[in-house]
Structure formats: C-alpha cells, structure tokens
Design goal:
- The structure is a single chain.
- The protein has 399 residues and is mostly helical.
- It folds into three domains: 45 residues; 67 residues, Type II secretion system (T2SS), domain F (Receptor-associated Protein, Up-down Bundle); 263 residues, Type II secretion system (T2SS), domain F (Receptor-associated Protein).
- It is 74% helix and 7% strand.
- It has a three-stranded antiparallel β-sheet with strand order 2-1-3.
- α7 packs parallel to α16.
- The longest helix is centred in the middle third of the chain and has 55 residues.
- The termini are far apart.
- The mean pLDDT is 81.
- Keywords: Cell inner membrane, Cell membrane, Membrane, Transmembrane, Transmembrane helix, Transport.
- Its main location: membrane.
- InterPro entries: GspF/PilC (IPR003004), T2SS_GspF/T4SS_PilC_CS (IPR001992), T2SS_GspF_dom (IPR018076), T2SS_GspF_sf (IPR042094).
- It is found in: Cell inner membrane.
Length: 399
C-alpha cells in the first residue's frame, strides 16, 4: 500500500512477556496505536525499508495454497491468516497478512481486503476470491488459483529460458570476436607485415575486419549501450508497447512460444472464472486486467465488445487473428453443447502442453546449433591467424 509505511515494534504484555512484530501504518502514532491493540505496551518502534522485489507472485500463490489447506481443515479466515503471518519469512508480508486479518475482524470481505494490496494480489485474485465468497467455494477457488499461478509461472520461466539461451551464446560469441579483433589480431598483423610473402585471402579478410573493429570500437560500444539507454523510454511509450508484441509474433520461432503462453494464460483464467460461476463477459474483464501488454488487452477488449453487441463467442474470436482455428472450433462446440468451461480447460491444457513441448524442443535443437555456430566463428578466426605461419617455411626457404 503506497500510503502506508512498514514499522517494526517491540513491546511487553501485562504479564511481562516480550513481544515483537511488524505493522503497516501511515505514521508513527498510528503504528504505536496498532501495536498496542492486544494489550501490548510498545517499548520501541522503528521504521523498516520495503522492497518491491519482495512482492513476489510466488508468495501470493503459496499463500493461496496454504489458505485453501487451512480452510479445508476447518480454520477460519482470520485464524488462517494470523497463523500464516507468524510463519512467513518476510516482514512486510507478515504485516500485510495481519492487516488482512484485522480487516476481516472488522467485517470486511477477503476480496475487498485483498483489493487494498494490489502489489501482492493482481486483479485476478480479487475476482476469483469474490466468486468463491459468493458461491461458498472459497477453498476451491484458492486452490485452483494457486495451481493456475504456479503453472503459468513455470511456463513463463521455461519460455524465457528457451529464448534466453541462444541470445547468451550469440552474445558471448560476439564478445569473443570483438575482443580477438581488437586486441589479438593486431599483434599477429604486426608480425605478418615482416613477411615477404602474400597473406592468404582468409587472413586478409580477417585482418580487414580487425581494422574495421579497431576504428569502429567507440561506435560498437555506443550501439551496445543503446538498448539499455532506450529501454526506460520505450517502456513508457504506448506506441512501442503495441508494436513490440506484433514484432515478436512475426518472428518464426519466437511467435509460437509467445502465442502459446498468452493463449494458455487467457484460457486458464476464462476456465477458472467459468468454473466459479462468473459470466463470460466478466471473465474477459478479468483476463484483460491480468494482461500486462496493452496490445493483448486491446485484443481481449475488442473481443468483449463484439460479444456485448450480440456476437457469439466463437464469432468474436474469429475477428481476431491471434486465435487459432482450433480455438474457434472448440469454443463453438462448447457454446452449442453447453460445456464451454470444459472446452476452455482443454484449450488451456493444450496450449500449455504445446508451449512446454516447443520450449523443450527449441532448447534441445539450439544447443548443438549454437555450439556449431560458435565453433565455426572461433575456428575461422584461429585458422585465419595461424594460416600464414604454415607458409612461413616457404617464405624463409625462398629467401
């Protein structure tokens, strides 16, 4: 919560027991009052720094899974949250869970209390928890929400790993080429100038490239730092935010991974909302809130508008090129047969499995390819450097 600060307190009870904890409050007086609610006399109060990196999605999904387990065991929401707060390793999460428990004790619902903490709980959490409260299936919704978040996290990590590996290998190969061209090859060039024999063509080409790298080294350094300089500007640019996903979807290998990951996320959220009894249009609103990319949000928003105007779901999807023919066919079948939730689950599992398989295949294929490319680049440089030495004997004997 942006308006609140994290405070760590230490106090003593009426029985002389020493207690300590963390609390969120607007100022020191409010923190002192909050710490002394349970008959504790605060002795010290210090402000703690908070980190955005501690608001991890992993902690949110773990909280939902543990909350579902405790609810199924018969504990109340307030008791479950207080118990989980005592066991959490991060102070700001402990204070946040205690705040949720206090709001519940004052009559607020869990969904409304979570809405006060957007850093920890995305909009999807509020929507599904609210549906669970309305239908009496809060433990079911918590468990499904945790499972969905964990699956999406694993899929996202696998896709990033598959795309990151070739970039790292190519970057290392490029750095080796630049280093050898700028520092190693000039030394060999100085030696070869003393030879009274023409250099092989391959060596001449590599030497010319080395001279170009030496003269253009400042420009290469500027081009290398340019992406880091432009990144903050591009992240704030609405035009780039809409252009970037379209460029990625136009790439031959990357497009399948990104499309599959996003479609898996969309259908998983829609399946969860359908199983929770939420109307389809409201489920699309939840999907739109969970997407971070503005271009994907526009796609879902246009689909929602078409359905609101009277189009069938599959017809609205047919207007968007991002949805595959299989998506439209299964959604149409689900609408006709009344089993839309099952079809959405099947689509979510299908795209998730396909993306997992594509990521594994890409990693398996790229490993030998990248090794081969790197070997060719390094081998060409080494052969070009040492090839004139093989002709050194001819030059000496001829002299």
């Amino acid at each position: 919560m942006a308006s609140k600060q994290l405070w760590h307190w230490r106090g003593v009870t009426s029985l002389g027991e020493i207690r300590q904890g963390s609390v969120w409050a607007e100022n020191k007086m409010a923190a002192m009052a909050s710490a002394g609610r349970d008959g504790v006399q605060p002795l010290s109060l210090t402000r703690r720094a908070t980190r955005k990196s501690h608001w991890r999605a992993q902690y949110s999904s773990e909280l939902m899974q543990q909350l579902a387990t405790l609810l199924q065991a018969g504990l109340t929401l307030s008791e479950s949250l207080m118990l989980l707060a005592e066991q959490h390793p991060v102070a700001q999460w402990q204070a946040m869970m205690q705040d949720l428990a206090q709001r519940l004790a004052h009559g607020a619902s869990l969904s409304d209390a979570m809405q006060q903490w957007p850093e920890a709980f995305p909009p999807l959490y509020h929507t599904l928890i609210q549906a669970g409260e309305m239908t009496g299936k809060l433990d079911y919704c918590c468990a499904h929400l945790a499972r969905q978040q964990e699956e999406q996290h694993k899929l996202s990590q696998k896709v990033k790993k598959a795309l990151r590996y070739p970039l790292i290998i190519l970057l290392l190969a490029l750095l080796v080429v630049i280093g050898m061209s700028a520092f190693v090859l000039p030394e060999f060039a100085a030696i070869y100038r003393t030879f009274n024999t023409p250099l092989p063509i391959l060596t001449q080409m590599v030497m010319s490239m080395s001279a170009g790298v030496q003269h253009g080294l400042p420009l290469i350094g500027l081009l290398a730092t340019l992406p880091f300089l432009l990144r903050p500007v591009l992240r704030r640019s609405p035009y780039w935010q809409r252009l970037r996903p379209q460029l990625l979807l136009a790439l031959p290998v990357v497009s399948g991974l990104i499309r599959g990951q996003r479609l898996s996320q969309i259908y998983t959220v829609l399946a969860l909302t359908q199983n929770a009894g939420i109307p389809f249009l409201q489920g699309l609103e939840s999907v739109e809130k969970t997407l971070t990319c503005s271009w994907w949000r526009d796609v879902i928003h246009q689909t929602s508008e078409s359905i609101a105007k009277g189009s069938a779901i599959w017809q609205a999807m047919e207007q968007q090129k991002i949805f595959t023919p299989l998506c439209k066919q299964l959604v149409r079948t689900g609408e006709v047969s009344g089993s839309l939730d099952k079809m959405l689950e099947n689509l979510a599992h299908y795209h998730s499995d396909q993306t997992h398989q594509q990521a594994e295949n890409l990693a398996t294929l790229l490993e030998p390819v990248m090794l081969l490319v790197t070997g060719i680049i390094i081998g060409t440089l080494v052969v070009a450097m040492y090839l004139p030495i093989f002709h050194l004997g001819d030059a000496i004997s001829g002299g």
